[in-house]
Amino acid sequence: MSDPEPRGRDPEVAFPLAIVSTALGVVGLTVPVLAWVATALAVTSYLLNTPHAPTRTLAIIGAAFGLVGIALPFVG
Questions:
Q1: How many CB atoms lie within 10 A of CB 50?
Q2: What is the enclosing helix (H) or strand (E) of 56?
Q3: What φ, ψ does residue 50 adopt, rounded to 5°?
Q4: Which pLDDT band holds residue 12 (cuts at 50, 70, 90)?
Q5: Predicted confidence band of residue 7 (pLDDT cuts 50, 70, 90)
Q6: Cβ(42)–Cβ(60) below 8 Å
Q7: What is the pTM (predicted TM-score) of this model?
Q8: CA-CA distance, 69 to 64, in Å (whole number)?
Q9: Inter-residue contact 8 to 36 (CB < 8 Å)
Q10: To the nearest whole percent, how much of the chain has pLDDT over 90?
């Protein structure tokens, strides 16, 4: 019998959120509102399933794209 998932963890939701955050982060480079959404989704997916390496990687990439998309209007 496997151990139950700790509270606040949902790996079935976290990985798709990380994928969507990466895609929205790329689009967010031209649409700042989507960059905010991508960053929020990336942080959420990271917190939902931190031990899973692919989720963690995609969440970090999505957050990076999102933060660049947020900063672009202020820079240039």
A1: 13
A2: helix 53-75
A3: -60, -40
A4: confident
A5: low
A6: yes
A7: 0.83
A8: 9
A9: no
A10: 67
